[in-house]
Design brief:
Elements (H helix, E strand, L loop, with lengths): L3 E2 L6 E2 L5 E4 L5 E4 L2 H8 L11 H6 L24 H47 L6 H9 L16 H6 L1
Antiparallel strand pairs: 1-2, 3-4
Length: 167
C-alpha cells in the first residue's frame, strides 16, 4: 500500500482517495481533497495559506527539527532485516514516542511564552491605568498585605563628639 502526500497541504493521501493532476510537462500533482486542488488552480502559494503544513513549518508552529523524525524517513533501497535488530527497534518505539511527546510539549510551551509575557504586561498596564475603577475594599486589602507594604523605620542620627563641640 503506497501512501502519497498532498502537493498543497502535505497531508497523507490513502489509496483510492484524492485527485491527481498531470501537467503538460508530465509533472504529477496529487491532492488530498478538492479544497487543495482548487487552491492550486487559483495559483496560491502553500507557504502563505495558514492551514497548510508548509506555512506551519515556515512560521515555527510545528516541530520540524526533531531527531525522532529521522526514524520515519523514507528509504527507497531495500534492506535486509535482522531478527534481533527488529526486536530491539520494536522495543525502542515506545521510548521514541515518549521522547517525541516530551519534545512537542516543550516546543508548545516555548511557543506560548512570548504571548503570555505580553499578556501579563498588557494586564498590569491596564490595572495601573484604571486603578480607580477597582473597589476600595480590594485596594485597601492589597495595601494591608504585609508582604507588599513598606515598613517605616525611624533612623536616629548619633551625634559625634566633634559635632557636639561645635554647638
Amino acid at each position: 500500500m503506497r501512501l502519497e502526500n498532498c502537493w498543497f497541504c502535505s497531508s497523507t493521501i490513502y489509496p483510492g482517495h484524492g485527485i491527481q493532476f498531470v501537467r503538460n510537462d508530465a509533472k504529477i500533482f496529487r491532492f488530498c481533497r478538492s479544497k487543495c486542488h482548487k487552491n492550486f488552480k487559483m495559483k496560491r502559494n502553500p507557504r502563505k495559506v495558514k492551514w497548510t503544513k508548509a506555512y506551519r513549518q515556515l512560521h515555527g508552529k510545528d516541530m520540524t527539527q526533531d531527531a525522532t523524525f529521522e526514524f520515519e524517513r523514507k528509504r527507497n533501497r531495500p534492506e535486509r532485516y535482522d531478527r534481533n535488530l527488529t526486536e530491539q527497534t520494536l522495543k525502542a518505539i515506545p521510548l521514541i514516542i515518549k521522547i517525541r511527546h516530551d519534545g512537542l510539549e516543550k516546543h508548545i510551551s516555548n511557543r506560548h511564552k512570548p504571548g503570555k509575557r505580553k499578556e501579563i504586561q498588557k494586564d498590569s498596564k491596564e490595572v495601573a491605568q484604571d486603578i480607580g475603577m477597582l473597589p476600595k475594599k480590594l485596594i485597601s486589602n492589597e495595601l494591608a498585605n504585609p508582604e507588599k507594604t513598606k515598613i517605616k523605620v525611624k533612623v536616629v542620627q548619633q551625634q559625634t563628639e566633634d559635632y557636639a563641640m561645635e554647638e
